[in-house]
Amino acid sequence: MAKPAAAAGTPAAPEKKGKKKTFKKKERKHVPHGLAYVQASFNNTIVTITDMNGNVLSWKSSGSLGFRGSRKGTPFAAQQAASNAANMARDHGVRSVDVRVSGPGSGRESAVRALAAAGIEVRSIRDATPIPHNGCRPPKRRRV
Fold this sequence. Notes:
Order of helices and strands: EEEHEHE
Strand content: 15-25%
Largest sheet: 5 strands, mixed
Distance between the termini: 78 Å
Helix content: 10-25%
Number of helices: 2
């Protein structure tokens, strides 16, 4: 049996009454000078931009941009990651950075160049690659 249609003056669905959701606006820090950490391994490149205290403002990696496999370690992927991270950091007011480069990867140079090309002044570049002073014993030789 068919249900009777709603009367002409009443709405078809009852209106919901309750709390209206209020969203807190995401606060943007204003940081004129920051630190950019470029971690370049053979397999991936991670670019992190922080304020002077080390609080992260933005980060990008080659893998988070959709590069897969051996393409993550390329200079082009590092360039894309650095420019994306720089654009996100510019929203926070970052105008100049000191760069700390770590690791032996091929994306070291291109990441620093991309930061400069994105409109962020690169004040200094420091190599922070950890170097062992004959510390750990190396793994045994591969037999292929």
